[in-house]
Design brief:
By secondary structure, the chain is of the alpha+beta class. It has helices at residues 61-64, 179-190, 229-242, 270-275, 356-363, 367-373, 385-388, 403-407, 434-443, and strands spanning 18-31, 36-45, 51-57, 73-77, 80-83, 95-98, 104-108, 138-147, 151-152, 158-165, 171-177, 197-208, 211-216, 222-224, 253-254, 266-267, 284-297, 303-307, 315-317, 320-323, 328-329, 333-345, 348-355, 394-402, 412-420. Residues 288-403 form the Replication factor A C-terminal domain.
Length: 444
Amino acid sequence: MSQYTMLSALTPQSETASLLVRVGRVWQAINRNNNAVLHTNVVLIDEQENHIMGIVRNNQKEMFKSILSENGVFHISNIKLVPGPKLYRTVDRDLAINFFYKTKIEKKPDTGLIPQYKFELQPFQNVNSLVGDVRSLIDVLGMVSSYGQLEKRSNGAKKIDAVLNNAGNEKVVVTLWEERADEFLAAVADTNKSPLFVVITGLLAKKFSARASLSSTDATRSYFNIDYTPLKNLKHEISNASGTPVDTLPPPTIRHFVTGDEEDIQEISIKSILEAQIPHGKDLLRFFCKAKIIGILDGNGWYYICCSKCARAVKQLEGKYYCAHCVEESSSYTQRYRVVIHVEDASGTTSFTLFNKEAEQLIGIPMQKILTEIEENDNVTQIPAAIRNIVGKVCTFQIKVNKYNITHACEEYAVTRVLESSPLPNSDPHTDSVAALNKKQRTS
């Protein structure tokens, strides 16, 4: 009989339990209001492949954090069993371990008996149903098929989007923030054009537009091409399904932006945008276009007043604001960017409309800060200098063309994503044929 207690046998009364466990991963929980460390979390794994979360409070951090190295094996005794977190669980278990001043930790030789990894994997088809569910964080595995360029927000935050594929060629988009984005790019650089398989932990499901995606948290870690049975199985399943040997599966490709249906979005010229036609059965088209901002159109101002609930424009009537979408008087409203820019490439010129998030990303200053800094006697209808400073930037825009744009010859195409790019070449980089484009759309 083992001298150690298995994690599955722990109860609130197991304070005298003696554990032999591997430290799976370590991370710090951060208060996003002030960036202070709340506590340090560790995932502990035993030989039966059970796991539990351990919590190191800040007053014990100096004592234990330096000892509990990732992947190390330890004998741990004198612990407190406490209720586990009710939300944002990394381990879906009602109990957690608290380390306190009596806790003893002793490093032990790694005999290979305890598995190196333990994850709570979710299939891709569950992601949509997990949107808004914050009880447990999500772990997924997949082959990285593509990734976008590193993007920066106006607050300085960095992010990168990656698309994962499973054996059934289902896709999910994962957004990695800050150092997790840097770690991803470093891993891609190390692959040397080889296929990249990954397990990503500690994610939350979110929905933007109609698609659900996953986003990183403090608990997120990425494990690339590890020796992990489900990951090895996935390699062979994808290899068998595609008829391609594992070693010759495609490496990740880099794109301007990634979406779940990225292969349907083409990069085209301004001339082709102006001549595009929407095929029967579709409401809109999405394109990428690389262009230079050559001016700001000030006929419609640079912001609009909107409903705080749905962000749609409100109408003023007898001194009150009404939201047609919410069908009620708007008790609270705010201002959001709406900046119409004049853009050009080698094929022509047109106008794009930047709304709040994309405008703030390029301008680099939140809307409310600009309003606050405008002097009381200044004319708020004039385009502020901070906004005019984006003139001259070369960007890759993801835009949408809807039926109104075509039937009303309205050349204010809404921008849904934007990324600053390198300068445009002197010659026209776009060789797409409008006829070929429309033919492809008719047959798609």
